[in-house]
């Protein structure tokens, strides 16, 4: 049976424990990258990485683009709740453009 993992700061990831997800609390992007690579070789179907961490390790996350499992997805964190970070939205926009062939998420 596949698992779901969440990597990020304590304030953001703590609530995912109640959903049965495996949570990895990290503050240092180097630690997050090590955990990502380790659990990517285990039975994880989805690995969520908080936006602040993902922005610091894009190359590590990019290694899993195009692979069936795990799907590594950027998760908005407490810092991005006020719109301060936009890395996650930029990644979603890029993936949609590749899939659809056009920018359908434009804003006026």
According to DSSP, the number of beta strands is 4
Q: Provide the CATH superfamily.
A: ATPase, V1 complex, subunit F
Provide the CATH topology.
Rossmann fold
Structural class, from helix and strand content?
A: alpha/beta
> What's the level 1 CATH class?
Alpha Beta
List the secondary-structure elements in sequence, H or E: EHEHEHHEH
Report, as a whole number of angstroms, the end-to-end distance.
44 Å
What share of residues is helical? 25-40%
CATH architecture: 3-Layer(aba) Sandwich
The share of residues in extended strands comes to 15-25%
- What is the 3D form? globular
**Largest sheet, strands/sense/barrel:** 4 strands, parallel
Strand order of the largest sheet: 2-1-3-4
Evaluate the radius of gyration. 14 Å
The helix count comes to 5
The count of domains is 1
Q: Residue ranges: pLDDT <50 for 5 or more in a row?
A: none
Overall mean pLDDT: 85
